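[agent] plan:
  1. take the single chain provided in the ticket
  2. run structure prediction with default settings
  3. attach structure tokens to the ticket
  4. add a short note for the reviewer (M.T.)
[agent] executing step 1
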Amino acid sequence: MKKTVVIGLDGTPYSLILKLTQQGICPNLSKLIPTGSLLEMKSTHPAVSSVAWASFITGMNPAKHGIFGFMERVPNKYDVYFPNSRHIMGMPLWDILRDYNKRSIVINMPSTYPASEMNGILIAGFVAIDLARASFPSSIVPTLKEMGYKIDVETQLIHESKDKLFDDLFLTLEKRTQAILHFMKNEVWDLFIGIFTETDRLHHFFWESLERNDQKYSPLFLEYYKRIDASIGKIMENIDGKTTLILLSDHGFCGLKQEVYINYWLKEEGFLKFKTNQPKSLSDIGEGSRAYCLDPGRIYINLIGREPNGCVELGNEYEQLRDTLISKLTELKDPETKINIIDKIHKREGIYKGKYFDIAPDLVIEPKHGYDLKGAINKESLFSKGIFSGMHTYDDAFVYVNNKNIIKHPLEIIDVTATILDSLDIPIPDDMDGVKFVKWN
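[agent] step 2 finished; step 3 output follows
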């Protein structure tokens, strides 16, 4: 019987994989590369984990699965909510397999909290807050508690010290690996998915340490990848040569130069107005506002009939406003280097298609590397820099498949889903956007 193992390294760039394997930091990955295909892959618009992993789970673009960001708009209100597993409208990969009597084990998958009933085992990842509600079936909870399983890294430790955060990064990786190996060895499965989100946390806080070759934290960064590589080695010891092995990341990563507050720019340019001088939330949007922004760089036009106090008519006025915003935003420059900070601005019809198209952002801004677009509304300047030193990128994600040649270019994360189904001889649903990218022998 065919089996497939999928290991996700959240936010790990293709370029970093190449660098670490060439330097001998990751010997297990180095052994894998000559025996399969390793290629760069594109993420989603926008390149955030909630959207990218939802696209992976379903093999669909956001207008079909309904997740467009880490937070979503409440219909007909200037308010937001944080989507969870119940807001993903497409059928998860493992439910498709269930219909073919295939059993799946899924560990630390973002966007799956609270855990839903399935044929197998599911441990939800980011942003799960309660282990019992993150686990299906409930019978696995005592086992997880006994091993000291950690849902996520305690990133707030950075406010105490970088050393404490690194200690927790290593501990969380240890517990994640322990859980993956336990269920891999002791359960029956056709598809096994294990996600390491710790890499994303590492990059957000310590990317600059690597780039600057920081005397203390650059070696720790590399040590972390040595341990990731050791975990992959242990996983490889528990699968045979006939098992399909897929490694992937959900987006790339790069150094962060500036955080860019788009709502500040919209306000300064007269596109956004507030009821108060110190707005605290979207509910403070005032009359006459024509556009507003949500993380990361999703612009919504204040449409008549869609927003509570919409003032822009769908049609020529809408199109002219979008074109004006595109024209003006593409001229934004870094105040120090004077280089443009915007790479592309996508109109929604160019990147989305599906049942939930109407709730999609009207524009999605794709920045150049180093410029992290934010939707905060209470900032007093366009540029700033917070505690993060690394940010997500749309390009430079990676995918690896053992013993096979990848035949599709360019690759997108939604293609992985179709490839997984095909590896298990499961028909690819007609409504799935992704296509298989491997020709099996």
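[agent] step 4 note for reviewer: The first strand starts at residue 4 and ends at 9.
[agent] ticket updated
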